[in-house]
Amino acid sequence: GESVGLHLPTLSVQEGDNSIINCAYSNSASDYFIWYKQESGKGPQFIIDIRSNMDKRQGQRVTVLLNKTVKHLSLQIAATQPGDSAVYFCAENIAPDTNAGGTSYGKLTFGQGTILTVHP
Amino acid sequence: DVKVTQSSRYLVKRTGEKVFLECVQDMDHENMFWYRQDPGLGLRLIYFSYDVKMKEKGDIPEGYSVSREKKERFSLILESASTNQTSMYLCASSRSGTGKEKLFFGSGTQLSVL
User: Fold this and answer.
1) d(CA B18, CA B25)
2) Does the N terminus or the C terminus of chain B have fewer Cβ atoms within 10 A?
3) How confident is chain A (120 residues) per 10-residue block, as mean pLDDT?
């Protein structure tokens, strides 16, 4: 899974297999999470998001699971295809602490990314 | 679909030059963001803007400034480019400023400072 550091985690799967990409977050105040896919030479594209009042959310071939107890987020891709090969980023919204003088505008903080390679 | 357009795909500049990176969005979004992306470090927020002429520092604002004179346009300025500012720069926009909405990204500008 993703963690602070300079070495990007990698995941290699065969076409048709299911993929699971993991992300650990550290801030218990985070209340919104989002997954992006970035293909080579392109900007990140939205995949799916989830709010902290949910444990699971499903999209087309993708499922995001949120475990707040252990501060863990995962992205499951069903029947992975070669076109799914990309770098996947998780991001969290850390709600601003306005009582401490923080801005009232939240912002997304991104993980370092995971490289997914799908072999035909 | 929302379109976020960055004016240049590749830029090569010299140390000490003033560099402008331009970004335009076409969906009347309130908020715009500049990130830089470096291998192994993910995306780091430089500056963001929640309204015309308003700006907020992100996590790594040093060496950068921004300008938002019109709602659809957000410019990133490197006052005096340095080699450690060689990076991929990504512009993004979102409808509101809560942080609980998805960002729409441009394709990025790969800046090389020699």
Assistant:
1) 23
2) N
3) 59 96 89 94 94 95 96 96 96 68 66 93
Task: Give the minimum alpha-carbon distance from A81 to chain B in angstroms, rounded to a whole number.
Answer: 23
Is residue A17 situated within a structural domain? yes
Q: Give how many domains chain A has, as a whole number.
A: 1
Question: How far is Cα A114 from Cα B107, in angstroms, rounded to an integer?
Answer: 19
> Is A32 close to B100, i.e. CB distance below 8 A?
yes
pLDDT at A106: 63
Domain with residue A44: its CATH number is 2.60.40.10
Residues facing residue A120 across a β-bridge: none
CA–CA min distance A23, chain B (Å): 13
The reply to whether B39 touches chain A by the CB within 8 Å rule is: yes
CB A35 within 8 A of CB A48: yes
Contact B108 A107 (CB under 8 A): no
Domain of residue A112 covers: 10-96+108-119
For B58-75, how does the pLDDT look when each residue is reduced to its tens digit (9 = 90+)?
999 999 999 999 999 999
- Residue A51: closest C-alpha in chain B: B100
